From TrEMBL:
Example GO molecular function: phosphatase activity
Pfam families (UniProt xref): His_Phos_1
Binding site for substrate: 55
Protein name per Swiss-Prot or TrEMBL: Alpha-ribazole phosphatase family protein
Gene3D superfamilies membership: Phosphoglycerate mutase-like
GO cellular component labels: cytoplasm
Active site: 10, 79
SMART domains cross-referenced by the UniProt entry: PGAM
PANTHER family (alphabetical): BROAD-SPECIFICITY PHOSPHATASE YOR283W-RELATED, HISTIDINE PHOSPHATASE FAMILY PROTEIN-RELATED
Length: 190
């Protein structure tokens, strides 16, 4: 049996754009509106699962209460930690180290920003969480409130893209994508 995962990225945050992986930014009012608008015609979930970062958890908690659904916080579905790049934007890093930024964008699995979590470790962490969820929740429909990096990883796999192209997957604020997770952990967009 497959697990149906509806992936929802958080909306706009108070921290703005840039590398904000483990920074715990809140949603802006617009971010809240974006997420509510995306889910206006959606429903039918058995469970809501969220990253522990407040840009995901605050919305997930409110939605779970309104919909009368259980909420689970999954630490392994948090965003990639960007190390020394945390809180900075690409333009700043580009001025300082063009080669490093290019290496990361072109092959994130083989280049790690200074003091960051390696993308290989991030991918292993996320996929281990997806495996646990598939084993436990097969046959159910789950809303996963998470981050751009988590969604890029999962969507790239579902689309059969090479690892190097993971960061080229577009995932805007409050984007919603549906995946089927099979027992063998193969992913496909639904």
């Amino acid at each position: 049996m497959s697990l149906q995962l509806d992936l929802l990225r958080h909306g706009e945050t108070t921290g703005g754009n840039g590398f904000r992986g483990s920074l715990d930014d809140a949603l802006t009012e617009r971010g809240w509106q974006q997420m509510h608008a995306t889910l206006a015609e959606q429903g039918g979930w058995d469970l809501i699962i969220s990253s522990p970062l407040q840009r995901c958890e605050a919305f997930a908690r409110q939605l779970a209460e309104v919909k009368g659904l259980p909420l689970r916080i999954e630490a392994d579905l948090r965003e990639l930690h960007f190390g020394d790049w945390e809180g900075r934007n690409a333009a700043e890093i580009l001025l300082e180290d063009t080669e490093a930024l290019g290496s990361f964008w072109n092959d994130p699995f083989n280049f790690t920003p200074p003091n960051a979590e390696p993308v290989r470790d991030f991918a292993a962490r996320v996929m281990a969480a997806i495996e646990r969820l598939q084993q436990e929740l097969a046959g159910q429909r789950v809303l996963l409130v998470t981050h751009g990096g988590v969604m890029r990883l999962l969507l790239a796999q579902a689309r059969g893209l090479p690892q190097q192209q993971m960061l080229q997957v577009e995932v805007g604020h409050a984007a919603l994508h549906r995946l089927q997770v099979a027992a063998d952990l193969s992913l496909r967009e639904a």
